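Journal club prep — side note

Before the paper discussion, L.F. wants everyone to see what a predicted structure for a comparable chain looks like in token form. Sequence:
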Amino acid sequence: MAGEKLGADEKVKRGTKRTLASLTVLIVGLAVLGTWGATGYYSLDPGKAAVILRFGQLRTVVTQPGPKLHLPPPIESHHIVDVEEIRREEFGAPAAAGAEPPQELGEAAIQTKDNNIVHLEFAVQYRIVEAFDARFRVAEPREMLRDAAQAAVREVVGRTGIDAVIAEGKDAVASESRELLQGFLNDYEAGIEVTRVQLLEVQPPRQVRDSFDDVIAAAQDRDRKVQEARGYENEVLPQARGQAREMISKASAYREESVAEAKGETTRFLSVLAEYRKAPEVTRQRLYIETMEEVLPQVEKILIEPGTTSGVMPYLPIGRPKAGSGQ
């Protein structure tokens, strides 16, 4: 009986041990699974994108910020890319204090269309717009961007004269360089957008710098004189236009007055003609008398009808006496 009891206790103990071992394995397994699953958790900040890969292939690109979860590695993995930051690369400028001046740097020396050497410092501002392309299609995006930017600027400056690069054509050079650089990056599928290419400092070769300064000063004097001439033009032209309008107005008024006077004379002539046709002799005599009054307004006139006198003409001065007669 004692042996049977001992065997039963041993069986219970062994069963308990197996149960505890199974529970321990289960707990450890669950812990391992939980820890493994937690590796698929990540948090995405605003302005960033997460590229999710499944067995090394693109599954999706997440841009919504907040806590996220994907299948744990090595099934899936995530790569965070900043798609909001505006990055900046400078070319031709010294990297730190004590470095060589820009004119001594090789990347600052660029040949122009007219075979001159110009020392040019410029900067490129860009941002990432395609997270997957920027992260996986280009091995070294920064170095690639710098090489492409120098190639674009050198190509544009190489087909532009030095005067345009230094003076009036700087904005055109920067704009054309940005478009060309963006074309390069699109061909590379770099996932990068160039927001601006800025020419920081453009200088002629040191040996002829004084001459170029004189040319720039002369161009500034030319622009100043042109502005003065335009100011004088803006002052004189309104006056001339005002005088022209005044003369045109006077001419129009004179025309209207002359036309109206001519019409009035025509109307009067036609009315006289109508009266003349009715009584030619009377009208002729009246016209003659009126004409004499207009021609000789200050002369005393005496009218004598033909055939009314013979010999001595009887004359009786009736009316107002002449001035100075004493009567």
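L.F.'s comment for the group: Residues 95-100 have pLDDT under 50 and may be disordered. Keep this in mind when we get to the figures.
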